[in-house]
Specification:
Shape: globular
Number of strands: 0
Largest sheet: none
Order of helices and strands: HHHHHHHHHHHHHHHHHH
Oligomer: single chain
Amino acid sequence: MGFTQEKLAHHLQVSRVTVGRWDRLENPPDPSLQPRLAAALEVTSTELVELLHPDQKCASTPAVPQKTRSSGHDVVQRIQGAALAFQETDRRLGGGVLLPSVELYLSQEIAPHLLDAHSGTSTAGIFSAAASMTEIAGWMTHDSGQNERARAYFERAFRLAVAADNNALAGNSCASMSHLAIELGKHSDALRIASTGIAKSSQADGTLRLTARLHTMRARALALVGEHQACAESLDQAESLLDRAVSEKPADWIANFDEASLASEAAQCFLDLAEYAEAEQHAAAAIRLRTGDRVRSRAFGQLTMANILVGAGRLDEAASFGNEVCKVTASLSSTRVLDQLNGLGRTLASARSVPEVAHFLATLGALSHVSDAQEGQTATWPV
């Protein structure tokens, strides 16, 4: 294909040393990179596997190429490994970086198994795997500001989970759809979908954390319509479920929901209820708990804190948190973060006389932060 190691490394955004290890068969490419590598080399995923594992290539290869020689269990395990790799990178870099690779993985690695009755994979296993990866694509699309596409992915993930008879995954998809409904201002939809998710998750094992997440989605919707008491009760229920989940083995494919996640959602609830002291306490906990590779989650926590401080009239402190988020945007491909930064900038624009605000607005103005986010307007949800 005319690639040197350096050019291929640049094309795939990895180091030349990494490509050299692939060449020497010392380390296989990360599963999240393999679809892009296959596309760059213009080979099928099966041919790429044969290039990476030449010792496993059989001399009597059938005339009709087989997608995989793995057992059904191995196929599902491989997809699960790829999903974890995609999610780990997504947390550090944002959805915009990996979305093309995830969509390619869906079409090239997963879709053929859905249609192949002789692949050895169980219907429940491959449909669950497809539901999980489809939901990941939905979140990356949402993070890229394409809410109409995100909604379609979440709806498809829900239907795949139902087809797999996987109540845990169906509940997980409901949590994602409820979150998106809140973002789109459809509060009654968010409340209904979260309640449906709770009913689904209660029929599966290993779902205490998931059910806690769904209760926080109910709390968010209730806060947005001013239901103080009901919101607080839902948050209390979520906290109780998290306490009980400490020793529970979570169901497969389910997104993690932890104390930092609860603190972040609680901060949003109390911000929407204009209870700024309580909101600040939860936002501070979310920021403190989000360390390491959770770059995007920490940025959202800082933006929530900035909006809380605006509500409390502490504009200089709000601007300082905005500046902190500006520092990570160069390495974080997240339209949602940029949109919220722009919103903070518009809110603070009338307070340019405050030095910290002026500095934040100047820093924000130097960023390339134009967004083409589009809100979905589909009339119905699948629940």
